[in-house]
């Protein structure tokens, strides 16, 4: 059993189209739940909603990409402001996953430091596998 992260591009649109969500990431249930818990923690830490919510099926839906962009930008601000030795272990892969999810939803990469982007293809490949 897995968990899907999806993008609902028609949320609050005038087309009122439903059931055509874009699959961003199909991940195992435990890993999906763990990552969603991390997203919720980042929302609290950075006082910024992510634009993700859980659906009745347990899937995670992105319906506000502008909020995700704002959260990522807040996280990048932290990334650029600290060089704490634990940052790469506790933080870098999470922000890379969010960058990949944003790119898959919107079709463009947000500007990010070269150190994060240097390994983003590896992160994306693991997320696809």
Task: Please outline the helices and strands.
Layout: E1 2-7, E2 22-28, H1 29-46, E3 52-54, E4 60-62, H2 65-81, H3 87-106, H4 114-117, H5 120-128
Parallel strand pairs: 1-4
Antiparallel strand pairs: 1-2, 3-4
Helix pairs in contact: 2-3, 3-5
Summarize the structure.
The chain has 129 residues and is of the alpha+beta class. The chain is 53% helix and 15% strand. It is globular.
Walk me through the structure.
- The protein is globular.
- The protein has a 4-stranded mixed sheet with strand order 2-1-4-3.
- The model has no long low-confidence stretch (mean pLDDT 91).
- The longest helix is centred in the C-terminal third of the chain and has 20 residues, at 87-106.
- It has helices spanning 29-46, 65-81, 87-106, 114-117, 120-128; strands at residues 2-7, 22-28, 52-54, 60-62.
- Strand 3 and strand 4 form a beta hairpin.
- The protein is an alpha+beta fold.
- The protein has 5 helices and 4 strands.
- Helix content is 53%, strand content 15%.
- It has one domain (2-128).
């Amino acid at each position: 059993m897995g968990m899907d992260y999806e993008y609902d591009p028609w949320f609050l649109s005038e087309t009122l189209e439903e059931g055509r969500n874009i699959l961003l990431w199909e991940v195992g249930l435990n890993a999906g739940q763990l990552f969603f818990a991390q997203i919720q923690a980042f929302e609290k830490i950075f006082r910024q909603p992510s634009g993700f919510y859980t659906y009745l099926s347990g899937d995670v839906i992105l319906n506000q990409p502008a909020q995700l962009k704002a959260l990522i930008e807040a996280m990048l601000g932290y990334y650029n402001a600290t060089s704490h030795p634990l940052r790469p272990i506790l933080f870098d892969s999470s922000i890379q996953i969010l960058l990949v999810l944003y790119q898959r939803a919107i079709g463009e990469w947000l500007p990010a430091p070269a150190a994060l982007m240097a390994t983003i293809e590896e992160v994306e490949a693991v997320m696809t596998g």
